[in-house]
Amino acid sequence: ARKIIIDTDPGQDDAVAILLALASPEEIETLGIVAVAGNVGLAQNAKNALKVVELSGRRDVPVYAGCARPLMRELVTAEHVHGQTGLDGPDLPEPKLRLEAKHGVDFIIDTIRREPEKTVTLCALGPLTNLAMALVKAPDIAARIQEIVLMGGAYFEVGNITPAAEFNIYVDPEAAQTVLKCGAPITMMPLDVTHQMIGTPERVEAFRAISNRSGEAVAAMLGFSERFDLEKYGWPGAPLHDPCVTAYMIAPEIFKGRLCNVEIECASPLTRGMTVADYWHVTDRPRNATFIRSGDSDAFYALLTDRIARLP
Ligand code: BDR
Ligand code: CA
């Protein structure tokens, strides 16, 4: 199994991504989950991560809290998308599990230093603050990371928080640029692919029909997100962004993309956080990230329903 650390701001779609990983121990060994400020504040995101771990029945997976705000900017949150709790929709009990005492950034550093070289993958589902902090505090870890797989950015599909930028990158563009320049292999799941993964009513029904508590919760999460996407985009359901990251760890053949140069706009207020992808190789800038552009949504949802059915 590939060893991963999940860095996240749960988030309905983060929660589904976490459930997919925890339901797939044959392919993925989840060493820990680290919360970051993003969809809502850090404390609430950390609490949501604990709730999701309890829902999965995998109480062996430790949860840490990382950074409470972006490197250089005020935190921007997304209650308008995810609700006041960041995880509105399912009715999940107050968690009994507790956070680990260690800071999440130190957990990332210590784990990558402890495990054999190039055996740990960082799965990032929120703003990249914790990853950037770890790389700044311990630059030696960059060469030891197996891969960074992240949900963030958009190019042909432009933005969702501004006309030019995707939320995770917009919130902490300096962190994103630090990560993209770190030298580790990077795979990006931008809106270009995540917007293909629409939770249609049939797909939501398939989760409900599993009739376990995790399937019910996933159906409720997608049901909540749907309201927003129906109103805003006129889509028949909500896209599952973050589960593209953990699905890629299990079935990379679902996704297609291209290794190219990706840089982050950090200076312009108008295009702050834009992911400028040299998809057509019109420059000779270094090819630092595999930019995923498409995916097989039927195979993606089939994988998800199969795995959620293995949970309590
Ligand atoms: C990303 O922003 C968050 O709100 C979602 O959880 C996802 O990680 C999509 O732009
Ligand atoms: Ca997220």
TrEMBL record:
UniProt keyword annotations, A-Z: Glycosidase, Hydrolase
Stored InterPro entries: I/U_nuclsd_hydro_CS (IPR015910), Inosine/uridine_hydrolase_dom (IPR001910), IUNH (IPR023186), Ribo_hydro-like (IPR036452)
GO MF: hydrolase activity
Top-rank lineage group of the source organism: Bacteria
Stored PROSITE patterns: IUNH (PS01247)
Start and end residues of each Inosine/uridine-preferring nucleoside hydrolase domain: 4-301
UniProt key word DNA-binding: no
Protein name: Nucleoside hydrolase
